[in-house]
Amino acid sequence: MAGRRRDRADRRSARRTRDPGERVHSGLARLHPDPDRPRAWTLTVDDAPQSYVDLDDPTRLDFEYQRRLGHVLDLAAPPGRPLRVLHLGGGALTLARYVAATRPRSTQQVVELDTALTAFVRRELPLEGGWRIRVRSGDARDVLTRMPDEWADVVVCDVFHGARTPAHLTSVEFHAEGRRVLRAGGLWTANLADGAGLTHLRAQVATAGEVFGEVCVAAAPVVLRGRRFGNVVLAACDVGLPVAELTRRVAGDPHPGRVENGPALAAFAAAAKPVTDTTAAPSPAPPSGSFS
Fold this sequence. Notes:
It is built from ten helices and twelve strands. The chain is α/β, with parallel strands linked by helices. The strands form two sheets. The chain has an eight-stranded mixed β-sheet with strand order 7-6-5-8-9-11-10-12, with helices on both faces. Helix 2 (64-74) packs parallel to helix 3 (94-102) and helix 6 crosses helix 7. The radius of gyration is 18 Å and the shape is globular.
């Protein structure tokens, strides 16, 4: 039986290699095969990389920023302990798969606005049976406001529309809803993107700091210096942010990164004002062809 399932998957893989893609609400979705791994794929939407999934090894996080989000998830509780995770933004469900594989019996909810993309991913990159992953359709903030108090151990915010984070997902009010949904000691983590000047990142650090007691960011040094547009992972909690271990893990990545926190991060964001719903703007658009 397993052999027949693998044969069918291999035939689907061969078809997908020649597939021109599928139109979803947010653009043209394509799956690009990894030449070194028989059942691994990169999802792109309008040619912008969105997610990487290895069906044979869901613990493999190929994108730098996803590895850093994975580190935050790893440090949310002792190894193997089930978590309750709310994912704002779905993509190919890479991080939900990672949690399900590394922390069996975890309960996860994924919020994805693009229902056609979700259907495409679930058909072409199916989830394993027994994983407790519920995918909900809707706007990330709308669903967040309907979540029960103290439901989640971790909230992961990774929402982009047209390569930009929507304005209503950048404010103090939005972060306060995230704080409400987290249990005591829970972790908020977000994938941000910025470039020269790092104005957006500085404002997001100030915004998270308005809501949470501790904040840190992790990224490639060249991105943190504003010399290249790229992804920055922000992590926050009320108390006990695992900065030392996160720093060690980020420094040991295949493409080593740096973690900033404490006085250095406070100085970095000192001139920035927290974003509110009345002042919020989308994150900056990346230069053509850039991705970190």
